[in-house]
Amino acid sequence: MSSLHGRRLIILVSALAVALSACASRPEEKGEAEEKPLTVEEVLATTLGEEAYGNVERCLPQHAYDRTEVLDQQHILFWGRGGKAWLNTLSAKCPGLRKRDTLTFELTQSQLCRMDTVSSVDYGIFGVQRVSGRCALGDFVEIGEEQAKLLKEQLEER
């Protein structure tokens, strides 16, 4: 079994165990339980089978994507042509990073790579001002358009 396959299997099994333990520990006397939205990790681990995941890449060529979308303070979607998407989980939460922000990237190579930095900026009357902290990118995980849409929906419910 490859290391990547094994890691995905462990994540899937861990998410399933968490979901099952949550179901088993719900008290019945409260009536209808409140549904909590899934986390990004839970969606990635449980929404689609192993075949839905693409490669995990350290770098993403700049020509591979044509727009970005901030999902939350730790997740950014990079959209390519033909419904292709890559999810980047930042190394830590990025204070001040918001949906619809304009992002700037500081590259160490000619492509966007893990540990390059991202920050959001505001183009106001006083020029360009940084709105968020400078945060390190993580790996780029190729995901399907369906999975990207589900991630967005789940995060909007938070």
Polypeptide structure, described:
This protein has helices spanning 3-24, 40-46, 145-156; strands at residues 56-57, 59-60, 67-72, 75-79, 85-89, 102-106, 112-113, 117-124, 127-130, 135-136, 140-143. By secondary structure, it is α+β, with helices and mostly antiparallel strands. The chain has one domain. Strand 4 (75-79) and strand 5 form a beta hairpin. The radius of gyration is 18 Å and the shape is globular.
How many domains make up the 3D coordinates? 1
How many β-strands, per DSSP?
11
Radius of gyration: 18 Å
**What does the main sheet amount to?**
5 strands, antiparallel
Span between N and C termini? 36 Å
Fraction of residues in H or I helices: 25-40%
What is the structure about, briefly put?
This protein is an alpha+beta fold and 158 residues long. The protein has helices at 3-24, 40-46, 145-156; strands spanning 56-57, 59-60, 67-72, 75-79, 85-89, 102-106, 112-113, 117-124, 127-130, 135-136, 140-143.
